[in-house]
């Protein structure tokens, strides 16, 4: 190649020579490179390097790289699935624990309510027994106390009403309607009042002869009414005593 370029350069003129020289120089460089690469490959083969082995090594590296990438993807996916499963298990455990706790609390509350109810019933039964025992043991005292309270209330009521004695006498006088004699005995302070009531007494006992008497031993609101057949004591204390007698029989 080089000798041809030299002879070619001889027959050309100066300008042509310069142009061809530049072309030959470029061509020579590329040919030199190709030759160098071929020589390098030849040297490599000569030194014992197997191109097929190199190719296999390159393929092996690519496979290992691909396998490593797939392994990472699978590992990441497995981690995600494991985390998801763990969250589901935890959620299920929490729900189950909440449900069990709720049911346990509900059952415990029911048991406490039932126990409280039983205790309340027991206390009421005991209170009823004690109350009955107390009433049985203190019946007479309670009746006496009630009588005193009733006497005081009735006495105060009669004192506030002008015709208090007539409130007591009217029912009896109505029963004496056909009697011939009516005798009314009261406290001296009430004699004048009772005399004023004679017209009403005669209206209830039209055939009766009415007589008003006084007795200092009577209470101010006590009154006795009698006819030819019977005497009726309308004193509050006597009536309550009779009530006590009937209640304790």
Automatic annotation (TrEMBL):
Domain of life: Bacteria
GO CC annotation terms, alphabetical: cytosol
Pfam families per record: FliH
Source organism phylogeny: Bacteria, Bacillati, Bacillota, Clostridia, Eubacteriales
Identification of the protein by name: Flagellar assembly protein FliH/Type III secretion system HrpE domain-containing protein
Keywords: Bacterial flagellum biogenesis, Bacterial flagellum protein export, Coiled coil, Protein transport, Transport
GO term, biological process aspect, one: bacterial-type flagellum organization
Annotated PANTHER family: FLAGELLAR ASSEMBLY PROTEIN FLIH, YOP PROTEINS TRANSLOCATION PROTEIN L
Function field: Needed for flagellar regrowth and assembly.
Coiled-coil parts of chain: 65-99
Organism listed in the record: Proteiniclasticum aestuarii
InterPro entries reported for this sequence: Flagellar_FliH/T3SS_HrpE, T3SS_Stator/FliH
Domain Flagellar assembly protein FliH/Type III secretion system HrpE residue range list: 125-242
Family membership noted in the UniProt record: Belongs to the FliH family.
């Amino acid at each position: 190649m080089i000798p041809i370029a030299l002879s070619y350069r001889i027959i050309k003129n100066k300008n042509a020579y310069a142009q061809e020289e530049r072309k030959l120089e470029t061509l020579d460089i590329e040919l030199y490179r190709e030759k160098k690469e071929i020589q390098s490959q030849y040297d490599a083969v000569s030194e014992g390097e197997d191109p097929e082995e190199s190719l296999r090594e390159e393929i092996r590296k690519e496979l290992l790289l691909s396998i490593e990438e797939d392994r990472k993807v699978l590992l990441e996916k497995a981690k995600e699935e494991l985390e998801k499963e763990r969250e589901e298990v935890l959620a299920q455990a929490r729900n189950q624990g909440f449900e069990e706790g709720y049911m346990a609390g509900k059952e415990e509350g029911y048991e406490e309510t039932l126990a409280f109810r039983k205790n309340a019933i027991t206390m009421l039964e005991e209170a009823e027994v004690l109350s009955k025992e107390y009433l049985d043991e203190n019946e007479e005292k309670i009746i006496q106390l009630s009588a005193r309270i009733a006497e005081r209330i009735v006495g105060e009521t009669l004192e506030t009403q002008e015709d208090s004695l007539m409130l007591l006498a009217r029912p009896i006088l109505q029963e004496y309607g056909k009697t011939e004699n009516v005798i009314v005995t009261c406290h001296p302070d009430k004699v004048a009042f009772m005399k004023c009531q004679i017209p009403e007494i005669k209206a209830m006992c039209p055939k009766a002869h009415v007589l008003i008497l006084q007795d200092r031993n009577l209470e101010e609101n006590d009154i006795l009414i009698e006819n030819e057949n019977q005497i009726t004591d309308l004193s509050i204390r006597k009536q309550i005593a009779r009530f006590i007698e009937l209640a304790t029989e």
